[in-house]
Every structure is written in C-alpha cells, then in structure tokens.
Write a structure and sequence with these properties.
CATH architecture of one domain: 2-Layer Sandwich
Strand order of the largest sheet: 7-6-3-4-5-8
Structural class: alpha/beta
CATH topology of one domain: Nucleotidyltransferase, domain 5
CATH class of one domain: Alpha Beta
Strand content: 5-15%
Number of strands: 8
Length: 416
C-alpha cells in the first residue's frame, strides 16, 4: 500500500476517527463518545481523563494530526479563533503571526464590517503585519449564509484521507531531521563532471551517460509514437432562445492579483455583453476559477439574461457545481453561492469546454491586468479583442454572415 512507517500510519488511521467524530454528528459513534467524553463541546475541547480507555487516549493524541493539517474555511466567522486556529491560505502554519494588540478581537467575525460579511480593510491594516493583512483581505467571502467549516486542503475534495495524512506526517518528520548525505553526494558528482579538464563534447557525453540519456538499446526500447493530430475546437452556439456565457480566469502572481473574464453571446455568435475584472489573488488558481463562475451567473442576472448555458474550461469547478454533494474544498462556499444564484434563473446548464473553445473569455481575463477594477461592454467588445472573437467562432455560414454584418455595421457607425 506504500505505507512504510507503521507509527505514522497508525496516527493517520486514528486521525480518521477524529475527523469522523467532528464531522459525522449523525452517527452512533459520535453520539456514544459525545455523551461520555465531550457532552458540552466537540472533540477538540474534550479533556483527557486519566481513567479513560486506551482507545480514547489514542484518539485524543491523534487530534494533533487534524489540528496541524486541517484548515478553516470562513463562513460566518463565528467559530474561528483569530490567533488560535489555522485559517490563513498562505503557505506555512496557517496561523496568524501578528501580535495581538486588541483583546476585543477574538473571532474572524470581528474583522468584518459590522452587520455585513465584508472585510474591514482599515481594521485589518491596523492590527496585522502588511503581508498578513494582504492575505486576509484576499480571502473571498460569501454573501449568503454559510457556517465556518473545517476542511482538509490536502485532498481534491477537501475530505480527510489516511494516505494524505500519512504523507503529511512523513513530510513533517523529514523537515525536522538533518538532510540526507545522498543529496550532497549527488551534488558533488555533478560538480565533478562539469569540472573535468576535458573537451566540452567529452564532458557532455559523460553528463548524458550518467543521466541515462544516451541512445542506447535500453533507452530506445520504447517504440516511437506518431503524434495524433488534435481536433480543432472552437466556440459553438447555444440552442435557440438560450444565451451562452463563457468564463475564464487568469492569475498575475507578480501583481498579487487575478483577472476574471466573462462573455455573453447569442445563437448567431453576436456579443451581448462582456466583462473584464481585476481582483485580489486569493492564493489558489482554482479559487479564482470558482469566483469567475459565480461572477458569470451574477453577471447574467445583472443584464437580465435568465436562460443560459454557462461554459468554462475548469473541469474541477464545473464538476463541483454540477455535483449534488456539499463541497468541502477551500472554494466550496463559492460553489454553494453559485448554485444558489443559479436557482433563480429560469433555465441553466454548466458545461465544460476545452481551452481552445474558450479563447475570448480567456483573453478578457488576461486583459484585466490593465483594468483598475471592472470593465463592462454592452453589445460591444474591446477593440483589441475583435480578432479573437472571429477566430474562436464556429457556426453556420448564415450565422457567420450575420455576425460579420453586425460587426461591420458597428464599425461604420463608430466612424460616423
């Protein structure tokens, strides 16, 4: 199974029981243990009794596996202790390192503007280190009712797994131990190769031989495969009386920001409206994809379009929105909000498309790098994206002529 350290494997298995005792409150296991060991709180607040069973003592010790690996996803902010819990998305411990200057700030909800679910930027800037304040302000919040949720960020679906916990424990142990001499020996070998006083071609030959990259019989045993030509994918029109909304995201790491791109088109491929918006980068690319999916639905409601096909190239987000299960991922609250907004539409469908069929939305997302906040065009498109709209269009000849005529009419009108 790939588990070599039995102690870490045992801790990971016990961590599974801790996870169940916290999340699966409808089970008989939870009801029995709660009545006996933590009647007035949860498993993390339970106090170890010297007279308790060996099994319970082992489960209590495994709480550290969850405490050191799990992360809080912010909902209403009432249950997350600012300085005690792990809730920051930045790499590291996930805990706040800024000194506590105000004793009245206890839970994350205290960092909201009173009566809202919006970050109080001025308050955050006063009480946190600059880099930590930026990280907090970039965490997206859902306007709808969501409770705080403890998630496991080491799996794609946010649920605890023994394998991921085991790997986490092994990695933590490796960080606390001195580095292996094998790495240093490897470095000395490569340095020795490149310091050889021989012609360059000999040095390169030795380097390739050590790296097993010479065209020997062993390295050539795999047959060559002919490249399979990829199918050309372009944007396809929706059904009659339905609008298609394409969305995509882009990340600008150097700026610490991200771009959202949304385009609404009709059966003929005519642009109804487009959006290009810059936001703070929330730390995960998939989080930005979830945010732009939610923004696409909200944008449809803003322009009074209620029969839509919502199309994006993030398969992970599309699957999450279409799933009937509650998402425990870091972006799960955004998925919940997207579903809630979609429920007010008269007709909707979320579909995955390859990047080649989503070029215009991608270009709008990339364009957000020059935006101050949000740019919106109604029945129009930014001039620098006209060519992208034509190249990414695939429909009937009549529809293409209609699209060309409308675009020509628009340009003639603008010159007059």
């Amino acid at each position: 199974m790939g588990f070599r350290d039995l102690r870490h494997f045992n801790d990971a298995l016990l961590g599974k029981q801790v996870w169940r005792l916290y999340h699966e409150k409808e089970t008989s296991l939870y009801r029995v243990f709660r009545a006996k060991y933590f009647p007035s709180g949860d498993i993390f607040e339970a106090v170890q009794n010297p007279r308790c069973s060996y099994t319970w003592k082992s489960i209590m010790l495994a709480r550290d596996v969850i405490s050191n690996g799990a992360l809080w996803r912010i909902g209403d902010g009432k249950d997350i202790q600012i300085w005690q819990h792990r809730w920051l998305p930045s790499p590291g411990s996930g805990k706040v390192l800024s000194p506590r200057l105000d004793q009245s700030l206890n839970v994350v909800q205290d960092l909201f503007i009173i009566g809202t679910k919006t970050w109080d930027f001025e308050l955050i800037d006063r009480h946190f280190l600059p880099w930590e304040a930026d990280g907090i302000k970039s965490i997206p919040l859902s306007e709808h009712h969501n409770i705080d949720l403890l998630i496991w960020p080491h799996t794609p679906d946010g649920s605890y797994s023994v394998r991921s916990a085991y790997r986490l424990l092994v990695a933590a142990q490796a960080q606390n131990q001195p580095s292996s001499s094998s790495t240093e020996a490897s470095k000395r070998l490569w340095k020795g190769v490149w310091r050889m006083e021989v012609p360059n071609r000999v040095r390169q030959f030795v380097w390739r031989a050590v790296g097993e990259s010479l065209p020997t019989k062993k390295n050539l045993k795999h047959p060559l495969r002919r490249p399979v030509p990829r199918e050309v994918i372009k944007w396809s029109p929706p059904d009659e009386s339905v609008y298609k909304i394409n969305f995509d995201a882009a990340v600008f790491e150097e700026q610490g920001s991200a771009g959202l791109g949304v385009v609404v088109r009709d059966l003929a491929g005519l642009v109804i409206s487009t959006l290009s918006q810059k936001i703070r980068f929330p730390g995960l690319a998939v989080m930005v994809e979830a945010l732009v999916a939610c923004r696409a639905v909200f944008f449809a409601k803003e322009i009074s379009v209620f029969r839509v096909v919502v199309e994006g190239d993030s398969l992970q987000v599309i699957k999450a929105v279409n799933s009937l299960k509650r998402s425990k991922t870091p972006y799960g609250h955004i998925i919940d909000e997207t579903r809630l907004l979609s429920s007010s539409l008269s007709c909707y469908n979320f579909v995955h498309v390859q990047r080649e069929g989503n070029k215009l939305a991608h270009a709008l997302a990339r364009r957000a790098v020059v935006s101050i906040d949000t740019d919106v065009w109604m029945e129009d498109l930014s001039r620098d994206l006209d060519d992208v709209a034509v190249i990414n269009f695939h429909t009937s000849i009549a529809a293409k002529k209609q699209c060309w005529w409308a675009r020509t009419k628009r340009k003639v009108g603008s010159t007059e």
